[in-house]
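Duplicate of earlier report; Integral membrane protein, interacts with FtsH input re-posted below.
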Amino acid sequence: MNNYDQAGRRLVNDAFGMNRFLTKTYGWMTLSVLISGIVAYLMGGMYHVSFSYGATIVGFILWFVLAFATQSVAMRNAFAGFIMLVVFSALTGGLFSYVFMMYSSTAIAEAFFTTTIDFAIMAIIGVTTKKSLDKIGTQAMAAFIALLVVSIINLFLHNPLFDLFISFIAVIIFTAFTAYDSQKIKEAFNEYGSEVSENGLAINGAMILYMDFINLFLNLLRIFGLGDDNR
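Output:
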């Protein structure tokens, strides 16, 4: 066998491995969104379940803990990480089930389809572009931190127009994050794929992309739901 045969076979194997990894990552991310949507619809759209203030606080504390713990656990035990991802997705659906009581089905559908198209386009760009998106990622993170500060300030101001402005900026930020994170997930597989659990790495990627998708959706929903009678 000559060197050209070896190089060609290695490239085919690398491409196959990458495709398998990305299929797992985006497949599990899609499953997470589906679980959240079903739980949110059942709790908010069908049974109109509402949580007490205390239950909401406990729920969000658990949500934050799971968000970080899932990624850590997944690298040590992929199966446990996957179960935690499913639980996290269901919890997210429960915590944000209020959207089915606050917004019309039209606004929800418009926000969801817009999010899906936006996410898909940016994910494809992130995976296929050869240009480094590190600068965009750094800028998006800086903007996100600034947005958090502004959002906290607006909690005291209660300015609806300011809230709308925040949502527009957040959409831009998480659109940028989607492309950046997609590229970073691909790079992580290229760099560490042979050294760590492929499934664990895919669960990590699915969690990151899921968060991008959910944040995109919630902020687009605030925009599409402006003036909604169900609010």
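Residues 3-46 form the longest helix (44 residues).

Merging into the original ticket.
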